Amino acid sequence: KSGSGRKSFWLDATIHAREWIATATILKITDQIINDYSTDSIVQSLVDKYDCYIAPMLNPDGYKFSWDSNRYWHKDRRTRNLSASVDLNRNFDVQWMSDGTSSFACMDTYGGKSAASEPETQAVQDEAQRVGRDVLAWVSINSYSILWLAPY
């Protein structure tokens, strides 16, 4: 679907506002891809062979709020009613409102009023549909716990 005919990989980070290290991590990876291309044969080989999709911050308004107002803020900031903000990670169409997601708006794990109700979620889903089956690896960098999670 992407049209390039090349396989690709996807990296994203900071879907949860308070996970600041995720942003730093993906920026370090991006820096290495860009700056080591001419001197590192492994980086050069990967970039020459694959398309790279990098989204360093999926929740910029929540991230800024966690710096300015509430260090432990988790969700987006689309609404002025703080309790109705959404955990973007739990707002995607696939398995919406499944285990680990709350239907109570005051919870950090609130999945939203409907699947893909948030513009950030819609943008990621649209891009996923566009690049389609060309993606070999989809890595979302989070910084909570010591877990390696696989999607549905």
TrEMBL record:
Sorted alphabetically, the Gene Ontology cellular component annotations on this record are:
extracellular space
Q: Does the keyword Metal-binding apply?
A: yes
| Keyword line | Carboxypeptidase, Hydrolase, Metal-binding, Metalloprotease, Protease, Signal, Zinc
Record GO biological process: proteolysis
Entry's Gene Ontology molecular function annotations: metallocarboxypeptidase activity; zinc ion binding
Quote the InterPro entries the UniProt record gives.
CARBOXYPEPT_ZN_1 (IPR057246), Peptidase_M14 (IPR000834)
Q: Name a Pfam family for this protein.
A: Peptidase_M14
Give the protein's cofactors. Zn(2+)
State the coiled-coil residue ranges.
none
Q: Which SUPFAM superfamilies match?
A: Zn-dependent exopeptidases
Stretches assigned to the Peptidase M14 domain: 1-152
Under the heading SMART domains, the entry gives: Zn_pept (SM00631)
Alphabetical list of PANTHER family matching this protein: FI01817P-RELATED (PTHR11705:SF91), PROTEASE FAMILY M14 CARBOXYPEPTIDASE A,B (PTHR11705)
- Which family, according to the similarity comment? Belongs to the peptidase M14 family.
Q: What is this protein called?
A: Peptidase M14 domain-containing protein
Where does this protein come from, organism-wise?
Capitella teleta
